[in-house]
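Q: What structure does this chain adopt?
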Amino acid sequence: MSSGSDEEEIQTEVIYEGSVEESSVEDPPMTEWSSLIIEMPEENLKKVLHAQGLYKPGSGEICGKYIGMSQSSVIIHPYYNYPAVLDPGIKDALLKPEPRVVYPEDGQDLYLSVCREMNQCPVRMFHQGLVTDTIDLRYYSVNPYGVRPMALALQYNKNVTTFNLTDNFLNDDACFHLGDMLTSNSNLTELNLSGCRIGASGASKLFSGLLLNKNLRILNLDKNELGDLGIEHFAQVVFRGINLKQISLSKNNITGKSINILAEAFETHNHLTHIDISRNNLSAPQNGIVNLLNQLAENKALQELYLSWDALSGVRTATAIKAVTRAPNLRVLDLSYNRLVGEAVETLIGSLGKAKKMVTLNLSNNPMTPEDALKVLNKMKSNAVKIQNLIMENVSVNMTFLKVFNQIKSLKTKKNAVIVYGGVLGAYDIAGPDMRDLVLNRAEFLTKKGKKHKVDVALMAMQILKDNGEIMPTKEFADAVAATGAPLDDDLVNEIASTFPGPKTAKTKTVDLASLVDFVKRKWPDRELPPTPPPEPEVQPEEEIQPIEETKNESTKTPKKNKNTGFK
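A:
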């Protein structure tokens, strides 16, 4: 079959036939190809100057006219100086994590960034306070959810030492972030959350950060409704050890039950210098406050203790307070607005001589008697007692107390002592009615009582003064009154004379009519004696007129001349 195919002729259809002429010119060798020949000037002035140090090419890029573009098969040209386009960051964006933004330590930029992220309005006062030592946001109505940016901004802040959020109602979320801030902040020394009403749950989240914080010294939790459960949370962190020095737990509905738990925590960690647990009900049960006071008596760092408005009473509590007064560094003890009286007061002041550093003792508004106040004051006379401020407001005292007070003020060591007390019993006279008014009103009534013959007492006294002078014996005064017809008995007249006494003699008593009339004029200023009429002129006896003898011839009389006119 293959042989048959070889024998067959292959027929090809011819479309066009052309003659091929042999080229008379041969191709030049490859070394002479024009595409590889670059004509360069014999001498480049810039290169010569560059070699001499007189020319700098600038960017280092070669001008395009020196690049001879030839065939596309030439991949690398000796004068090509344009590198390929570098990666603009696509590889890092796909393969590497986003770089972390580092904010300044003052936290201002971080605060604004977090507020923008949480859609919270930033607080300008807080933002500006991040570069100062104090941020005061009292009564500012801070949004509880705006506390998170604040806490983040304060985590590594090195400026702020005091943060005050008084009366800004905070929820559990705000307390959580504040507690988290305390774990990393190393510069904050005072945190004031008075009146924020965080409750027991918020307190548990806040106290979690106290264990890791080493610099916070003052924590104010007044009026936060902690209750017994909140104090139990605080007792747990105290048991584990905290660096707080001053704690304020006033007005938190604390009873003796939770105080007993706090006393047990003080057995392991008892280094607080200032403790305020006033305005709570610590007297029920009594064991709690007694155990707490016994533990505080062993605190060598305690300086100030405030126990006002705690309903403290009884000898047992007073004995525990007496033990606290022996604390070596105690300076201020506030026991005002309690129920200490009698034997309890005498018991608690028994060791005041051993309180070497106590400066202020406040016993104001306790139901103490003047005898109790005197016992406390007598303790001040001893040189062993170093108290300089004894405050007993609204505690009544007696005259003996004032005598001892003057003795203490005369001592050189006590001349600067401040002793405050209430009212003084027995230092005043009982004020009764004015006897001058009483006797004159009685006389006025009796003289006006009669219908026929009425006498004005004021005019009567003025007339007697006018007729008899300023001083008058009592008996003559009674006769003068009787002469006026006034219906006054002898007893009333004698009482008037005793009320306005004049100078006494050995035998008689006198009446000061000037004082009587002066009081009468002030009592009845509209009454006055009628003016005294002028004396009538005396009538002279009439002279006898002698009759003139009539002349018979009257016409013969010569008329007299008028002296004034000169006419007849």
